Amino acid sequence: MKPPTGTTFFDKVWRDHVIAKLDQESDLIQVDRLVLHELSGSQALRALEEAGRKPISRGQVFTVIEHLISTQPGRGPCDSVSSSGPAMIQTTRDASKKYGLHFIDYDDPRQGIAHVVAPELGIAFPGATLVCCDSHTSTIGGVGALAWGIGASEAEHVLATQTLAQAKPKTMRVNFEGTLRPGVFAKDMILALIGTIGAQGGIGYATEYAGSAVRDLPIDGRLTLCNMSIEFSCKYGFVAPDEKTFAYLKGAEFSPKGAAWEKATSYWRTLKTDDDAVFDKEITIDCDALEPQVTWGISPQQVGSIRATVPRPSQAVDKEANALGERALTYMKLHADEPIRGTPIDVAYIGSCTNARLTDLRAAAQILKGRKVKAGIQAICVPGSTPVKRAAEAEGIDKIFKDAGFEWHESACGFCGHIGDNRFADLRVISTTNRNFESRQGPKTRTHLASPATVAASAIMGCIADARELS
Ligand SMILES: CC(C)[C@H](C(=O)O)[C@@H](O)C(=O)O
Ligand code: SF4
């Protein structure tokens, strides 16, 4: 008789949302929250309208303008970074008003990137299932929700039924153990994991991030970790909720209040993995020894310590990695055995749903205070949301950035992905974002992914720099 084993956080949340078993692998899942942005969300809203249908539960649907809207101060209702932007923005605006959805327009004081706004406003909560037409939706696992990215046709189905058919994934736990040294952050943790497991390492898994280093992270750091789950092909990433989670969500606009809050937190406290639960896969990352990480290639798996040299593709684990390595060095105009630190840069970018929350801006400001961006370097900050921007301004962080020589923008997805603006074309960018694919940030841009502190230090030095030398 197999000894009974405990249940994982994932299994508990999944079990509480199964409406019906569809077949051996798939279940029909109840969806608690649907978040739509104007790029792919507008497609779902238009398809629903063309089918003559309407949302089954408009109170569970949230729409936000954040992908295509310009980040320039003084932006107008349809100022966009792409030619198709104005129409998609207006479609989202019109449908949201027609159906009475929770709508956050470009000039709403709560506006921001969906994956920053949903936790901030308590739209997401522990144990909730939340979907969005975006591959980085797993970010929201940082507050203990089960959140994943879907396509526009799936979003149309959720709009009409508030359910979704899902194949149940295997479970993985990544134990980040130890204590981060000063100058090392959540971004370094997740980059190190992806460098270890590979960009395909999470296919078919739901990943729980655990361990002492995760417990020590602020919620912003947990959101950073979960954000990049998809960069190792893992659709679901999450951190089981704890008192830090509850403190973060308490009092948020859409969080339960009063007796409902007490009832909710008593349920949320049950959402943790049992001590004797067994995972399909477990990995441990030693954080005591962790160094700041920076990518050198064209995949987030092509990453290493900022103190390392660019690796030789011939030393890669297999032929495929070898070929990707050769392609990366050619595209990135780098040479094997050269130190990554000291590589000249053209642009320093702080933004995105990965690393532009208040703790991220504080970490960068600590490096920038009293210093100047190197002459000739473009330095831009796009806060993750308008509330983050306002909170940073209340602390004088915007002044530190501007005095150093950074541009201080309005919140949106901005220059994370190449949606239209070509100002980084053919330049080397060190960036707090989550993807370093070829031409990700514009035609022939060469992107290095790093933490906000590393980006800030690099802006000052004019080359890839170790923030620990400046702090
Ligand atoms: C536009 C959206 C579909 C896309 C994604 O899902 O990842 C974008 O957010 C990105 O980061 O490339
Ligand atoms: S900030 Fe970047 S990664 Fe995040 S949703 Fe927007 S485009 Fe995608």
TrEMBL record:
GO molecular function: 3-isopropylmalate dehydratase activity; 4 iron, 4 sulfur cluster binding; metal ion binding
Annotated metabolic or biological route of this protein: Amino-acid biosynthesis; L-leucine biosynthesis; L-leucine from 3-methyl-2-oxobutanoate: step 2/4
Residue span(s) of domain Aconitase/3-isopropylmalate dehydratase large subunit alpha/beta/alpha: 11-462
Cofactor(s) the protein requires to work: [4Fe-4S] cluster
Gene Ontology terms: biological process: L-leucine biosynthetic process
Enzyme superclass (EC): lyase
Alphabetic keyword roster: 4Fe-4S, Amino-acid biosynthesis, Branched-chain amino acid biosynthesis, Iron, Iron-sulfur, Leucine biosynthesis, Lyase, Metal-binding
InterPro entries: Acnase/IPM_dHydase_lsu_aba_1/3, Acoase/IPM_deHydtase_lsu_aba, Aconitase_4Fe-4S_BS, Aconitase_4Fe-4S_dom, IPM_dehydratase_rel_enz
Reaction(s) the record says it catalyses: (2R,3S)-3-isopropylmalate = (2S)-2-isopropylmalate
UniProt-listed Enzyme Commission number(s): 4.2.1.33
Subunit composition and interactions: Heterodimer of LeuC and LeuD.
Role of this protein: Catalyzes the isomerization between 2-isopropylmalate and 3-isopropylmalate, via the formation of 2-isopropylmaleate.
Protein name: 3-isopropylmalate dehydratase
